[in-house]
Structure formats: structure tokens, C-alpha cells
Design a protein that fits this description.
alpha+beta; seven-stranded antiparallel sheet
Length: about 550
Amino acid sequence: MQYEALPKPHGASDTPANIPATAEDQEGMPRVSATEQIIVSSPKQNADPRSKHRANGAIILEGRLHPATLAFAIYHSIRRLIIPVIPLFFFGNRIVTAVLLSLLIGASVVRAVVRYLTFSYRIEAGELITRQGILERTERHIPLERVQEIRIEQGVLHRLFGVVDASVETASGQGVEAQLSVLSRREAERLRQAVSNKALVQDAEGRSNLAADASAAERKRLHRLHLRDLVLAGLTSNHLVSAFVLMGTLWALVDDILPRDYYERTARAAHDQASSILAQGTQTALIVAGSGLLLLFLVSLLFSVIGSIVLFYGFTLSQSGENLHRSYGLLTRRVSSLPRRRIQVLEIKEGMLRRLLHLAALRADTAGNAAADQEEKKEGRDVLLPIVPRRELDALLPVIFTDLEPGPIVWTRVSKLAVVRDTIQGGLVCMIATGGMYWYNHDLFGLWPLILLPLVCGVSVLRYYNLGYMFRERYLYTRRGWLSRSTHIVPVRNAQTVTLRQSPVSRRLGLATLIVDTAGQSYTGGGPMISNLPLEEAQSLASTLAHRAAAMHYQW
């Protein structure tokens, strides 16, 4: 059974993003070719932004790509092709391979030249406008008020040329709307300030002027991570699996250039070594196996620490006016600006080790987040602050949410029937496992899963004591997790959907789970959720939350 309360966000447009131009839209526009494509991102209702900027808009900022675009195109082509081509070069026809490689790189260079010569951007009439293409021309209009985040990345090669990559994300939820690669550092900073830190106002004659705002204000450093913090972040993070994946990736790269009989010779050597160890007795074999596992664990831990340092080196969180700024990275330097009002959900993540050391990490979602993938997490885009002492959060939270209500957090517990519900569900799993093992073995050994029933009950009690919520006038707090704890803070005005769900066991016990959906929940684990609430309490909370969200002004 599912209940939903859908607040109508005040001021939010019902018009979907990326609507193609209609015949009415094209009236008064310059003549375009048959293959020209106009893309409008998040257009305003009852207004044609393209005709508006043609009629009375003044160009505030305009520019083109840096000439180093051509060098980067060659570099990226070689990097993509070098690994697949190495085996062909050594074991195939070298002349054919060289010709094929030259053609592929040449095609990439031609494409880069066309993009460099045709790509342009400008800010006009409250929009960021990009234009590119010869035969098929694409023009994209992005209203500045819908821009969620500007990311600037600078790798090692970028530093040699003094250039950066700039990415623009909007509230459409489709990820990057405009990719400007590559720009000079100065031009990228001008673009970032114009888009993120300034607002367009209209003077009495209807002409656009750029009003200075917080960009003139000096940045205030909120938090900076030192090397010892990054080491601690690597040691306490849950990135050991990622370390194994990294080692596997490196092995896969080496695998392409290894001799064909390498694995056969390695397998024979491993078999001979294992036979020699087993011949020395069981105790020796156990010691060697334990030592191997310990060595593997230490190596993975080392990879985790190195990854933390490389990714977050020099991490600085600062504030100027309405914007939060993040800069970090050893090899690839990343800089991003995030307006505080556009943070949809804030998550305080405490892993098992970090809870013991009173440490936490902050993650934030905005309306512009596309579905998070592993690549984005590898780049640290989901992190507002990688690691911070728990005691410092009380000072940081009011900076992130300026209207956060003061006072201590007093958690409201869920129903005590949560212990019964979780025990029943865990017990059913144990019973099914017991039945399957007894049917397979036909002896008492198949009953061993029943030993886990007390453990299931104990875990259910721990889960109950770590579930809770607090509902204030403007913010909803939720908490869950007994081993690794997640605390979500969501502004009530950002609630889009409030849903109540019941499983068959929950219906029998009169319980429900309340789920709050906002415009962006890519990075914070699915957003706020309160499970095992009494049904009447859940219905009352959902109704109050939905009506209060509908009455508040939604902020993009």
C-alpha cells in the first residue's frame, strides 16, 4: 500500500527542459539552415528567451575555446587508442596498425578543429548561450537562474598549458548541460563569476546590467584539510573494496602486454609453492595463509590512503556571499561553486570506524544532480567535506543552511514494534536457510542457521535505538543505521513528494515507512526516510510536511 502527498512547489515551472523550438517560437528569429538545432534548457513560461536576447539584450561576456583544444584532442585520442593498439603492433601487421592509428587520430584532430573554429559562448539577457557546428548547428540557451553548479577541473597537462575544463550543471537533472573544454584559467574564472556569483537586473530602459554581489566579497575559509586528515580519511573510509577494484584495473592494463603463457607458468609456480607449504604441516599453511591475507589487507589500506590523498589533496571549503566553494586534488585540481540555497539534502555520514573516532563526512545534493555513477564518486563530486570532527558540525551547519533553527536535536523514536518487525523478517530468512540446508544435508548440521536468531534480535534492538527523526518548522531531520549511521537534513520547502509505504508485515503491525523525495538525491543514499512509524503518526506527519512544503517558496 502506498500513500502520496504531492506538494505543488511555488514558482516551479511545469514546462520540461530541452523543449525543441516550435513554429511560433521561431517567429522573429534569424533564418537557420535545415539541419540547425535550437536547444532551450528550462525555458520560462510565456516568454521566448531567444527572441528576448536578440531584441534588447546586451552581451555581458563572450568567448571562444583556447587553441590548446587541438593539442588536447590529440592527447586524448592517443590515450584512448594506445592500450588496444599495443597488442596489434607487436603481434599483428605493423603497417596496417600504423595506418589505422593515423586515420583514427586524424579523424579526432579534424573533429577538434571544427569544434574549435565553430564553438562560441556568451552571456546575454540572463542566459548562457553556447553555439557550435557547421553542417549541423546546435545552439543551447541556459537561463542563469537555473544553473546549479560550475565545476572547473585542471589536470597535470592542463597546468602545462595554463588551461582548465569548465562544466555547467542545471536544475534539469540531466547532469552537465554545457562542457567548455578547454578554456584559459582567466576566462573560466570570469565565466564562473558571471554565472555563479552575479545576477542580471533590468534597468529602466530594459537593458541588462550585471549587478555586482557576493563576488566582490572576500572568501571566508570554512575548513581546510591537512595531510594527516587525508590519511585518517583513507584509513577510516569504506574504500577498501575500491582499492581492490583499482588493483584489478591496474592488473587488467598490464594483462594486455603480458606474454600468452604467463598465467600458465604462474599457475604452475603457485601450485608447486602451495604443495611445498602444505607438506610442512597444517600450522605452517595457516600461518602463511593468514600472513597473505594480512599483506593483502595492508596493501589495500595503502591504496585507500593514497587514493584519499590524490583525490582530496589541499581540500578547502570556503564561502563568499551566497556561494560555497570547493577546491581539491593533487594531480587533477577541481574547483566548484555551489549556491547554498540550491542544496536540496545534506547528509552526515558516519562509518563504523568514524563513529568510534567521532568523525563524519558531509554530502550534498542539488537539483542539478544526475544519477550518480561510480565515475562521479571517484572524482569526489558527492562530497561537500570528506572528513570533519563531529564537534565542528554545530558551527558548520548554520553556515550551510542560513535559516537553520537553533537548539539541540531531540530525536523522536519510532514504534517499539520495529524490533518485532525486524526480528520477524530476519527470522524468516533464517528459517528459509535452515529448511534449505536441512533438505540438502538431512542431518542436524543443517539446523545451524537457527543459532543466528538471537543475533537477529540483538541487531533489531540496535536498529531501533538508532532510528529517529525531528520535525521543526523549516527542517526535517532523519537518522538511521546502527553500524554505519546516516543523518539527513532536508529543508521542508524542498520536499517534492511525501510517500508512505507498507510491507505485508508492516500492515499487520500497523506500521509505515515515510519517504521524502526532493529534486536531487543522487549522492545522499536515497534521501530522508523514517521507517517503522505508527500508521496514524506517519499519516499526520506526511500531511503536515506536504502542506507546509506547498505553502513555502521552492528554491531552485
